[in-house]
Structure formats: C-alpha cells, structure tokens
Design a protein that fits this description.
Low-confidence stretches: 2-31
Number of domains: 1
Mean pLDDT: 82
Strand order of the largest sheet: 6-3-9-5-7
Structural class: mainly beta
Strand content: 35-45%
Order of helices and strands: EHEEEEEHEEEEEEE
Largest sheet: 5 strands, antiparallel
Length: about 200
C-alpha cells in the first residue's frame, strides 16, 4: 500500500478554492442538489482526491477500501441514502458496510472480505457490520472515540489505468439532502505484485 499527496493535487485544491470563492458570492445550487456542508463533515474534512492509496490486485478481484469514518457531528440523526465511487475507471462498486470502530479502521486490503490481519484492527466490529445504504447514524460528540468505519468493496474490472477519485455518500437529515466526499483516491496496479 502506498499513500501519496501530490503537488498537482495541492494545486488543484488551490484552483478549486479560488474558483469557489470567485463564483460563490450570489450563486445558489439547484433545489435537488445535495449540500456539501452537512453534519458528516467534521473538523478534519478536506478536499476529495487529495491523497491516493495504491493496491496490487488482478482484474476480477474485489478490494477493500476502508479508511474512512462516518461521524455525525450534528444534532439530529443522519440517514445514508447511497454510496458511490467518484470518477471510477476500471472499478465497480460492489458493496458498502458500516463497522463499529473506536481508534482503528479496517483500512485497505487487496481482497474482500478483508484479511484477518485487517479485521483485527476493529476487534469484534466486523461481526456487527451493517449495510451502509439505509443506515441511521445518531449524533455523536466531537470527542467521541466511537465511530462508524465505512468499508467499501470495489470490484476491479479494468487492466490499465485502474483508479477512482474517491467515495461519495449521499444522505439526509429530515428533509434536507447532503453529500459527503472522502479524502483518499485509489489506484490499482493490475500488472505487478506491488505498487
């Protein structure tokens, strides 16, 4: 596994911020477009795609993408509507679960279900996993160590330039819709045993 943050990603974030500031004044989103400022965006929230994980896997394999948490910083329950891959190339969404976790997450693995080594990081949490779509997440204090590890199963369908920008979660609180993006992207090395 290899985690990187590139100068290109930093430049992209700076350009996006400049554009958002320039266009943000006086503009509004379409009525059915989910807002990006919901209760799942905590104090460490950052731009999607600012880092990348690399995993070796063959075409046809299913990999584990489990380095993110869904922590409800709001005052009302959150209901997860859907989980999707952001800008996938040679990858297909297979499944997503929420795993109770405290200080460690399952992380990234080149198979799904995750290996025993990866599962050891969450103790008995894997036995208590639940489907992410449709899940309700109660409000949690910002200082709470208990959280929900989002674990996504991703099928490798391509053989070259296999990657995605990240994960998108659409959710709602009452009648208001929101969209959450993770920080890490994924590339899959299909021709070598290591990245």
């Amino acid at each position: 596994m290899n985690i990187t943050s590139t100068p290109r990603a930093l430049l992209g974030r700076a350009c996006a911020l400049t554009l958002a500031l320039a266009l943000g004044t006086g503009c509004s989103s379409a009525p059915n477009t989910p807002a990006g400022d919901g209760p799942l965006n905590g104090p460490d929230y950052s731009d999607a795609g600012s880092g990348e994980v690399c995993l070796p896997a063959k075409q046809g394999a299913t990999v584990t993408f489990g380095g993110d948490e869904l922590h409800n910083y709001g005052k009302s329950k959150v209901v997860v509507d859907s989980i999707a891959l952001t800008e996938p190339h040679g990858l297909r969404f297979a499944d997503a679960v929420l795993v109770p976790a405290t200080t460690s997450f399952i992380g990234y693995d080149n198979h799904y279900p995750p290996s025993k080594f990866s599962l050891a990081s969450v103790g008995t949490g894997w036995q208590h996993r639940r489907p992410a779509a449709g899940a309700t997440i109660a409000p949690q204090p910002a200082t709470s160590e208990a959280t929900h590890n989002l674990v996504v199963a991703i099928r490798v369908t391509g053989t070259a330039h296999v990657r995605m920008k990240g994960i998108t979660v659409d959710y709602h609180v009452g009648g208001k819709k929101y969209r959450w993006h993770n920080v890490m992207g994924l590339s899959v090395e299909t021709r070598k045993k290591a990245c």
